Amino acid sequence: MRNIQSFAADYSEARDKFLAAARLADARTFRYDNPSKGPGGEALSTDVAVVGPEDASKVVVAISSTHGVEGYCGSGFQVDWLATVGASGLPPDTAAVFVHAINPYGFAWTRRVTEEGNDLNRNYIDHTKPYPVNEGYLEIADFLVPADLGEAGTKAADAKLAAYRKKVGDIAFFRAVSGGQYSHPDGMFYGGGGPSWSNRTLHAIADKHLKGRGDVAVIDFHTGLGPYGYGEPITHYDIDTPASRRVRAFWGESVTESKRGQTASQARDGLGHYGLNRILLEPETRLTMCTLEYGTFDRESGQRAFRADHWLHKYGDPLGKEAGPIRAALRRQFYPDTDDWKEAVLFRGHQVTRQAIAGMQRKANWGDWGQSR
Ligand SMILES: [Zn+2]
Q1: Which of 129, 239, 258, 358 has the greatest number of CB atoms lying within 10 Å of its CB?
Q2: How far is the CA of 28 from the centre of ligand 1 (A)?
Q3: What percent of the chain is modeled with pLDDT above 90?
């Protein structure tokens, strides 16, 4: 059995465990200080641990906490890998770059968004161009985050949402809710009005540790969608491109491709995947990336938890007494604090990481993977 002690109870403990495991693994570490503070006034940072040769042509990357509170999951895996696998799991000419808490504010504050209120996985967009318009979100914004979160207000807002869902159907409804929007800064799934600190930090990390490498395989750890404890590798490549074939060769039949409509994820614009695509350019670098999405609880309880979180930060007091239960519900939704869930996370995390490392070795031999994404 894997060591579920690798998981932490809060951001600061997660960071301590990560740095301790990095020391055990003889990793080189790098710190990126976030300008904000945690709810207890604690310092926040993104930390990077690098294992393996400085100039390796193949690099496996694991990212935790793109969605803040979801960081418990990825952090637990990163700690476990560094403590139990480390350099012993890396073939020659292969390195591991582990990015811990890319959104440390969200992790520490038990939120999905960054300190700018951004959904980081909608923020990697070209901010010099006009933003996409999410017409559906415009229609339901006030019902998603109603000013009155009491019984009557909730009931009224839910009736409006149910009517809208009935009108447009399930897929259009979830796309409106979670596809991303650039019009309501304190609303859900807001992609931002510029590159967030976490976005800029990931760019800096990629520039320093990934640029110019031949093959980069990225696993971005998420939670909240799918069956309890199961990790689904979701990819966003165009159908029938070399990259789309690569993800299948790496991760087998369990890969889902959003462009084939195989996943429940409705994310469309501003994904981390697209951000890294713009930094790591072919033919110099071949990027093979998946979002490893672990299931927790059902989507409806997720929506309720999001609603309360956004209500708290828009209409309530994030340090007041109503904050406690709201934060607890959100934490539970994205980090089921049970042994079986953690064991499943570790099993699948190690499997998917091992497959990524093995995939890069095979590719070097095959040499016929083409260049375009
Ligand atoms: Zn996520």
Answers
A1: 258
A2: 27
A3: 85
Distances (CA, A) of 140 to 173, 174, 283: 10, 11, 43
Give residue 225 CA to ligand 1 midpoint distance, Å.
Answer: 8
Phi, psi (deg, nearest 5) at residue 343: -60, -40
Which residue's structure tokens are 């989507």? 299
Q: How many Cβ atoms from other residues are within 10 Å of residue 47's Cβ?
A: 20
pLDDT of 60 above 50: yes
Å from CA of 357 to ligand 1 middle: 23
Q: Is residue 353 very low, low, confident or very high in pLDDT (cuts 50, 70, 90)?
A: very high
Domains and CATH numbers, the chain: 4-128+188-300+329-366 (3.40.630.10)
366 Cα: distance to centroid of ligand 1 (angstroms): 33
* Greatest alpha-carbon span in the chain: 64
Contacts with 47 (C-beta within 8 Å, 6 or more apart), sequence order: 15, 18, 19, 22, 29, 30, 31, 32, 100, 101
Measured in whole angstroms, how far is the alpha carbon of residue 254 from the centre of its chain? 19
Retrieve residue 173's tokens: 């409804």
